[in-house]
């Protein structure tokens, strides 16, 4: 048993333990698969134990690997804190879901607050997807409906409420409701509205829509391929003419109008989400930026006559 173990070897081990796949773990660490395999084999030699069972079809932790993993995670967390304290924190990867949303303003403010640290934007399109990436260490922070995540996943994350974002509907510009300044929910009765059904990245959004539409005669559109980009969105909207559930900050799309929903005013609860125990100056800057903007613009105030699921309200009022 060596007196010292290089953190690089432990990081290779932890990445493979998370992915149970050597090529994905190598991509996550930005190293060649051959180098990663070499580091894992070296760690096994130094410890005198096999950490993985490898076959042509799968990779699995051995009992020794399972026993070592929590200790390795603690060592790596301590090393990350040391690098932060020494001013050597690496880039922070921040998922913004989609361009043009309010969380982009939080990132902009955070960059102003922490100009010496690199905060890089990513677009994962849905907190369900992003949260899994955060828990696995491939992403550092994201935004979205924290209450819509599985409890077992929430146990591995922290969150801070950012905004109650009013919801809206995207309509074809010649839709019967397009001329209204606002659309009452009752006016959508009999409509089929797209809310991401079938998209595994956005389960939390589809669940919110289901709770909102229940008992109001509004159907959720069946699963369909995700339209990526303004041109594709316009083409699909022209073809299906299906209204789309959105938020008031949803970017303008050609051939459509965006109308806020009222009676009641449905709110989409948005939190900043990061991995539990993760220390980084960029996380601190994001949290401060979110607090500042929420205070300046009343993002956490709920208007009279608003709607939010009870579970979401409780979680937003009592953040971890």
TrEMBL record:
Residues 5-62 form the HTH lysR-type domain. Pfam families: HTH_1, LysR_substrate. Belongs to the LysR transcriptional regulatory family. It comes from the Bacteria. InterPro entries: LysR_HTH_N (IPR000847), LysR_subst-bd (IPR005119), WH-like_DNA-bd_sf (IPR036388), WH_DNA-bd_sf (IPR036390). Coiled coil: none annotated. GO terms for cellular component: protein-DNA complex. Keywords: DNA-binding, Transcription, Transcription regulation. One of its GO terms (molecular function) is DNA-binding transcription factor activity. This is LysR family transcriptional regulator. It comes from Streptomyces triticagri.
């Amino acid at each position: 048993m060596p007196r010292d173990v290089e953190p690089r070897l432990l990081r290779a081990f932890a990445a493979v333990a998370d992915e149970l796949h050597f090529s994905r773990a190598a991509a996550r660490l930005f190293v060649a698969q051959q180098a990663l395999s070499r580091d894992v084999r070296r760690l096994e030699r130094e410890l005198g134990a096999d950490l993985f069972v490898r076959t042509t079809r799968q990779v699995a932790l051995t009992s020794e690997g399972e026993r070592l993993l929590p200790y390795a995670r603690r060592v790596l967390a301590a090393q990350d804190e040391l690098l932060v304290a020494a001013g050597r924190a690496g880039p922070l990867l921040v998922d913004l879901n989609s361009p043009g949303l309010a969380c982009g303003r939080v990132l902009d403010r955070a960059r102003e607050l922490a100009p010496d640290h690199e905060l890089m934007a990513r677009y994962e399109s849905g907190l369900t997807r992003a949260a899994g990436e955060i828990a696995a260490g491939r992403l550092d922070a994201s935004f979205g409906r924290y209450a819509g995540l599985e409890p077992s996943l929430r146990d591995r994350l922290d969150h801070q409420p950012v905004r109650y974002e009013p919801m809206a509907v995207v309509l074809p510009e010649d839709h019967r409701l397009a001329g209204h300044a606002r659309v009452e929910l009752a006016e959508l009765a009999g409509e089929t509205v797209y809310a991401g059904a079938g998209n595994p990245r956005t389960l939390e959004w589809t669940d919110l829509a289901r709770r909102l539409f229940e008992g109001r005669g509004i159907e959720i559109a069946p699963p369909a391929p995700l339209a990526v980009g303004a041109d594709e969105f316009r083409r699909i909207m022209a073809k299906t003419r299906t209204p789309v559930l959105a938020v008031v900050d949803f970017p303008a799309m050609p051939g459509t109008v965006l109308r806020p929903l009222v009676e009641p005013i449905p709110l989409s609860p948005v939190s900043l989400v990061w991995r539990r125990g993760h220390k980084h100056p960029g996380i601190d800057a994001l949290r401060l930026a979110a607090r500042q903007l929420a205070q300046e613009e009343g993002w956490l105030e709920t208007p009279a006559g608003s709607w939010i699921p009870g579970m979401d309200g409780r979680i937003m009022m009592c953040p971890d």
